[in-house]
Amino acid sequence: MPEKLKILIFPDPRLRKVAKKVTKFDKSLKKLAEAMLHTMYDANGIGLAATQVDRHLRLIVMDLSENKDDPRVFINPTYKILDNHSLYEFEEGCLSIPGFNELISRPDKIDLKWQDLDGNEHNDKPEGLLTVCIQHEIDHLNGKLFIDYLGAIKRQMITRKMQKYKREIARGKAE
């Protein structure tokens, strides 16, 4: 069974680190992707960026299927917005900010490029939930969180609650 990794919890400053491009496509990369998928499934998530598990590489795992049987790995993902006026609203949550979901609007039409675990290049024009998730996870690789899209007051409230949550975890009072 793959290793279960520790997910960093906001406001951990390591979540703000910008990930480095993957240049070595080897067994250790495959092992990390496997461990990330295992961790994501265990946490009931649909996406996880390497930054969230304190590995600062441009690597994302995702599974949007109902049965959790369609794992996807995106290495060095980039996108260009194709239409700034076509927005998709989705109530986003984050494994690094448990307990908070907020409605976020993101561009719905993008041109996505990435590499697979063997370094092969891919290109797609996703829409809907995949578009939202890929942008959310790429934000993580760039040191950005979904709460950065919120107003200052709401962001401060979530930050204070997350600081309290982390103190409770440290004292053993929270799960």
Note the topology.
Elements: H1 27-42, E1 47-49, E2 59-62, E3 72-92, E4 102-115, E5 121-124, H2 129-141, H3 152-171
Antiparallel strand pairs: 1-2, 2-3, 3-4, 4-5
Rg to the nearest angstrom?
A: 16 Å
Mean pLDDT, to the nearest integer, reads 95
Biggest sheet, strands in spatial order? 1-2-3-4-5
* Silhouette: globular
**Total strand count, please?**
5
One letter per element, helices H and strands E, the order comes to: HEEEEEHH
> What is the strand content?
25-35%
Low-pLDDT segments: none
What would you call the structural class?
alpha+beta
Distance between the termini: 23 Å
Helix percentage:
25-40%
Largest sheet: 5 strands, antiparallel
How many DSSP helices? Answer: 3
Short description:
The chain is 28% helix and 26% strand.
How does this model look, in words?
This protein is an alpha+beta fold and 175 residues long. The chain is built from three helices and five strands, in the order αβββββαα. Strands 1-2-3-4-5 form a five-stranded antiparallel sheet. It is globular.
